[in-house]
Description:
The protein starts with a helix and ends in a 23-residue tail after the last helix. It has two domains: 84 residues; 105 residues. It is mostly helical. It has eight helices and no strands. Helix 5 packs parallel to helix 7, helix 6 runs antiparallel to helix 7 and helix 7 runs antiparallel to helix 8.
Amino acid sequence: xxxxxxxxxxxxxxxxxxxGSVYAAxxxxxxxxxxxxxxxxxxxxxxxxxCRSQFERISAMYPENWLPVYYVAYSDIQIVxxxxxxxxxxxxxDAKTKLEQLADNAGADLSEVNTLWGYYYNALVMLDxxxxxxxxxxxxxxxxxxxxxxxxxxxxxxxxxFYKQYLxxxxxxxxxxxxxxxxxxxxxxxxxxxxxxxxxxANFLEWIKTEDK
Length: 213
């Protein structure tokens, strides 16, 4: 009888523990989903800064999840590509710190993290075009590494085309850019949108028209 009572107590403890975990997960998903909706519709630096602050708060509330940290870094980098006033170098410094944290996170998707590393170095070039020669190879290497790690990830494919579009004519191939754009569209079209993994980037396809200079 004593043994049965012990098992019963253990079962009840496990039930309540699991119920608590499910509740926490649903709360996390609800909060993340709301901020991701705002991120999807962000049009200004202020919009992005608000999302960034919310992702930072979520990362403090749910330190076991890597995605809030990832989205802080993404927001930091994305701001560099928007017109307007912000301490963009400081934001990139913060993005670098966050990406270094993610590199040590066993649960993080390395293809997604390396995509952001490529985007980070792309942003450094955007911030100061004289960085182009210094970071040109690093941008491409990180995107290529991300593609090798997950050939189904559309973000590095899309961002590589985006980056190559604005290279000097002697360094780019319009055919490669068009192929990259088509491949990214194919991958985005079949990607499932879920808050459990990154899904941003489809809007970049509107920016990388091969006829633009």
